[in-house]
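Hi P.,

Sorry for the delay on this. The queue was packed all week, but I finally got your sequence through. Input first:
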Amino acid sequence: MLRDADIREPLFTYLEQRYEKVRFLEEKVTGRARADIVMILPDRVVGIEIKSDADRYTRLPAQVRAYDRFYDENFLVVGSTHAQHAAEHVPAYWGILSVELIKETVDFRWVREAKPNPKAKLKNKMGLLWRSELAHIQALNHLPKYRNKSKAFVIEKLLAKVPAELLQEQISTELFERDYTQYEQ
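Then the structure:
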């Protein structure tokens, strides 16, 4: 029986091979839930929820609602015991990746590919950024600094002044470049 801890490292390796340029954030607070993994890709941010063979679906409905507010795509990674019924627990646009142990090797199989999340809000995704990252996006787009304004004010200005497609790329770039040593200081 695979547990969450048995799945994570092999999952990172699998996704790095599949997507090449990728960054992972673990245990990211997402609204009122905590995303197991947030995967940053050059053009999108993906929420990943893990339900190992040892897990139950009790919190999943609330997690789905939270993930859907923030991420461009979402998928559920499930132990093989959950693979047959996982689709009953997530929307049709969520991807499902099954994981099982075959001859001492953790193996992944796509049950369903993820589709774009129709409920994602760019404003919510921008809320994942630190104030310094938002300031960098302001500078890239030649906008005033708004030093004495709130983070919410800055987000509204960016949404009004910068094309959404460009913001999507800039958000991914900021999350790729994020320096956690700044956070510790």
